[in-house]
């Protein structure tokens, strides 16, 4: 039996809100999501009236919540980057976002220069062991991409990133990546008796039966529609959960139903059953035949903590098994078929038609059944947002003149040789043109109303051409060759700056910009922060990868979110001058202790993974922290944990912890990760409730966590660079 690992991917909680007003409803061939260190929220998005008028369309996790409720927002946090995308935290697990899905969005600047913009084709869904809630159970059949450290896997309508190290496969490099909190079945100590998935609590894709939506039955189940796909519920489970009347009604109906005669459809069923079983690597006996009330035949197969249903007509021999959620997206397009045909007759090409349907924002939904070109023109005149990014010659496409009221336009990630056509959009306020190769910005003189511009990855070294545009409130100019911010001193309305990966040394030009709310200036040459002192509106600051930055010069009374990864930081005393901080991320630094954290009265999130911390003890009491990640440090025990009087979640994986013993039991922590340490077996033996005795004795409130990978010191594996052959072997999950 193949190794199954329960993964709860834990990390940071990203907060950005670079309000460019452009959360383009990206959804061409693949999900449009936002990575980078922070999500850019949008003024348009804040207009709930506009947002609520849209049908659910676009990309799960960006344009609408995924099946487990994840949607990037101003409180999302990035965990790590891979070759093809980013990993973002969601509760006690994570979601993966492809760089490709950022093209044409306000977050395009977050795509690293030269990054792969390819997205692997979706693989078929694979049944495996049943997890709990949103907890993903690794299965190699779910893999859609791989890099040196881990796998990107599909889970329902979204993706996760799984470290090879969490599966017992060493990464290809000796660097330790973000840790994944992990459960094996034999060390899983979450209390049981949760009830029945889909009846007593929602399944991992959000389904919970409420007595409605029944569309058919099998010999032992009813079939319930959930967002375009079917969930089967057995008559036995219905009776256990108080739905006996439903079970009685449909079971009796099933008994009276006469079997269909064997005909060509039966032969087709058997062929497709065998094909489906082989594709999903399941025995055919694990797949159940179902039949709807209208006589349609389908297949029910297990998927995580629930089942999926595919109808006979959904499967084609010789082609990949479709994802039920992707089928729903295809059916969604089918709903718009008539309106799309009208656009085609008007002269729009297929690319632009798809972009209009999937990425538009307008006062009313796309007129799916409109056949009158004149009425369609009236609707097009109400469209305020559109993404044509990655399309060849986007500004030369037919029909753009019928969109006179565009306020937000994405044209990035494709070469553009003539910007003049953009001038036809007289109301344009936000222009996204990442990686277009544009060097001449004279066209901007005809766009005085412009409020936001993304010119990232365009080999720009001088921002002087922006000085005349006093209405600008957002500038994204990441991954360029910028050294001076002097031109920005003349732009009094600036609120959001994205200047990552340049060569900037001096922040003095920002001294007089009183409206600044967010600054992202990672990987530059910043040292002195005194020019930012006293800015009352500045809430978010990212200074990561500035190796000489002096945080003692940071004095921001209202700063809420600070990221200072890999800056050489040695202590936390600067917190005393930044008393509004609620989230601090300071990984891969030189911090040896947490003294100073007691000064932060509003701090609720702290990530100091990958430092040199040897003790949790602090000079006083810390009363606000809810979450601490001290993984990959030098802790030998958890003494001092009681100084954190509101702490709920502690991540202390990959330290040198050799005991869970505390001088006094902890009463607050309810989630504890002490995996990959040196805790002895006698402390990890499970009690009658399935909780390790050491945890139960010293952490009274803990109900979940991880104890995986604990070995005596003399058995701890040494990190070593693997050979080429080893790297190849590590890609396989063995039995």
Tags for this model:
735 residues, alpha/beta, 15-stranded parallel beta sheet, six-stranded antiparallel beta sheet, 16% strand, flat, disordered N terminus
Outline the structure in words:
With 735 residues, the chain is α/β, with parallel strands linked by helices. The chain is built from twelve helices and 30 strands. The chain has a 15-stranded parallel beta sheet with strand order 16-17-18-19-20-21-22-23-24-25-26-27-28-29-30. It is flat, with a radius of gyration of 27 Å.
Assembly type of the chains comes to single chain
Count of individual helical segments: 12
Distance between the termini: 6 Å
**C-alpha geometry:** flat
Number of E-type strands: 30
Largest sheet: 15 strands, parallel
Order of the strands making up the biggest sheet = 16-17-18-19-20-21-22-23-24-25-26-27-28-29-30
Which regions are unreliable across 5 or more consecutive residues at pLDDT < 50? 1-57, 120-135, 164-193, 254-262, 718-735
Percent in strands: 15-25%
């Amino acid at each position: 039996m193949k190794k199954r690992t329960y993964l709860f991917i834990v990390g940071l909680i990203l907060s950005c809100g670079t309000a460019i007003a452009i959360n383009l409803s990206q959804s061409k061939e693949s999900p449009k999501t936002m990575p980078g260190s922070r999500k850019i929220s949008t003024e348009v998005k804040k207009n709930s009236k506009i947002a609520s008028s849209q049908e659910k369309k676009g990309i799960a996790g960006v344009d609408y919540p995924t099946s487990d409720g994840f949607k990037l927002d101003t409180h999302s946090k990035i965990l790590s980057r891979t070759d093809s995308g980013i990993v973002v935290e969601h509760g006690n697990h994570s979601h993966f976002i492809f760089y490709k899905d950022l093209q044409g969005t306000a977050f395009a600047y977050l795509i690293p220069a030269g990054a792969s913009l390819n997205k692997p084709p979706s693989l078929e869904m694979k049944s495996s062991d049943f997890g709990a809630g949103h907890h993903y159970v690794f299965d190699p059949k779910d893999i859609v991409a791989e890099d040196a450290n881990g796998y990107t896997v599909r889970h329902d309508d979204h993706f996760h990133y799984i470290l090879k190290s969490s599966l017992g496969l060493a990464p290809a490099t000796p660097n330790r990546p973000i840790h994944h909190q992990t459960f094996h079945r034999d060390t899983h100590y979450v209390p049981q008796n949760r009830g029945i998935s889909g009846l007593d609590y929602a399944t991992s894709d959000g389904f919970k039966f409420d007595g409605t939506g029944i569309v058919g039955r099998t010999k032992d189940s009813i079939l319930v529609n959930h967002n375009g796909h079917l969930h089967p519920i057995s008559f036995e489970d219905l009776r256990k959960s108080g739905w006996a009347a439903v079970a009685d009604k449909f079971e009796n109906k099933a008994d009276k139903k006469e079997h269909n005669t064997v005909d060509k459809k039966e032969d087709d069923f058997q062929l497709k059953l065998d094909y489906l079983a082989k594709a999903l690597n399941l025995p055919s006996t694990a797949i159940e035949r179902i039949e709807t009330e209208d006589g349609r035949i389908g297949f029910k197969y297990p998927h995580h903590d629930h089942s999926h249903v595919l109808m006979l007509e959904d499967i084609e021999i010789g082609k990949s098994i479709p994802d039920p959620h992707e089928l729903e997206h295809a059916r969604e397009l089918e709903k718009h078929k008539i309106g799309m045909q009208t656009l085609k007759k008007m002269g729009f090409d297929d690319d632009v038609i798809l972009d209009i349907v999937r990425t538009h924002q307008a006062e009313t939904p796309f007129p799916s059944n409109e056949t009158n070109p004149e009425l369609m023109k009236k609707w097009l005149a109400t469209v305020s947002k559109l993404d044509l990014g990655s399309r060849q010659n986007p500004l030369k496409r037919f029909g753009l003149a019928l969109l006179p009221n565009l306020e937000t336009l994405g044209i990035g990630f494709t070469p553009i040789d003539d910007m003049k056509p953009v001038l036809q959009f007289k109301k344009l306020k936000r222009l996204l043109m990442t990686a277009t190769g544009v060097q001449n910005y004279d066209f901007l003189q005809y766009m005085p109303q412009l409020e936001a511009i993304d010119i990232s990855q365009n080999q720009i070294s001088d921002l002087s051409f922006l000085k005349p545009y006093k209405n600008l409130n957002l500038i994204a100019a990441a991954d360029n060759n910028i050294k001076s911010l002097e031109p920005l001193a003349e732009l009094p309305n600036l609120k959001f700056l994205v200047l990552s990966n340049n060569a900037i040394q001096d922040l003095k030009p920002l001294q007089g910009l009183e409206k600044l709310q967010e600054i992202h200036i990672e990987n530059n040459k910043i040292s002195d922060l005194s020019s930012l002192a006293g800015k009352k509106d500045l809430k978010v600051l990212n200074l990561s990868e500035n190796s000489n930055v002096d945080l003692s010069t940071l004095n921001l009374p209202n700063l809420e979110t600070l990221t200072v990864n890999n800056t050489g930081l040695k202590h936390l005393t600067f917190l005393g001058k930044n008393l509004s901080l609620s989230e601090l991320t300071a990984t891969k630094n030189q911090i040896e202790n947490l003294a100073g954290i007691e000064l932060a009265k509003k701090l609720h999130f702290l990530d100091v993974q990958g430092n040199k911390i040897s003790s949790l003890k602090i000079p006083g009491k810390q009363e606000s922290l809810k979450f601490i990640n001290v993984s990959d440090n030098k802790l030998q025990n958890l003494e001092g944990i009681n100084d954190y009087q509101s702490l709920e979640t502690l991540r202390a994986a990959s330290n040198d912890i050799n005991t869970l013993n505390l001088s006094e039991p902890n009463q607050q922590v309810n989630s504890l990760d002490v995996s990959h340490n040196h805790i002895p077996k006698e402390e990890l033996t499970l009690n009658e409730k399935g909780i390790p005795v050491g945890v139960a004795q010293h952490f009274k409130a803990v109900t979940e966590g991880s104890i995986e990978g604990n070995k005596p010191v003399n058995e701890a594996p040494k990190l070593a660079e693997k050979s080429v052959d080893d790297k190849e072997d590590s890609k396989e999950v063995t039995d």
